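Hello Y.,

Per our agreement to keep a running log of every chain we model this quarter, I'm adding this entry. I've kept the format consistent with earlier entries: sequence first, then predicted structure.
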Amino acid sequence: MAQAAETAKSLNRGAAETRTRALVWAGTALAIAAIGMAGSLYLSIGMGLKACPLCFYQRTFIMGVFAVLSVGLLVDRARAGFLCLLSLPLAMGGLGVAAFHEYLVLTSKLECPLGVFSMGTAPLQSFVAFVFLTVVVAFGAMAGKNGLPPIRIPVVAGATVLGSVLAWGSVASAPPLPPTPTKPYDAEKQPLDMCRPPFRSP
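Predicted structure for the entry above:
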């Protein structure tokens, strides 16, 4: 009887530690999402930059993560791992769009304004934020049992695949890029306040 009680205590202790780990991951993800969302809004409201369609997709994804985690943790912190799992497709979707956006910059198909504190372009800052966010929610999803320990890894993998599909859908449905300009931009009339195709001299 004593041994059974000790075993039950040990199991309860292990479950509590698992919930605590998941809660730490979820809290960290919420902080990253909050910072990323605030930075994204500041680019438009504080710096006066104009968001392109790809920017809007990324902003929507990070707002979605913030909403899921903030409301979820307010209602039931004991299921932090499950909340991270729900956030994973959104984080992965934003990461995919941000990666494509930065690819366009690196291949000179787009030129984009500098982000907050001029630390890299806005797409690069978004990409870095989504990398951290995706990694954190993935660890949070793995840390929480989610009620189904034997299928935890396939479920997390499935959530990742779903996020990739969301990213593909966002990129595929985005409006086409504006035409490449035939003459240099006027620095005064056309400041670099949004992502646009760069001028290429013949």
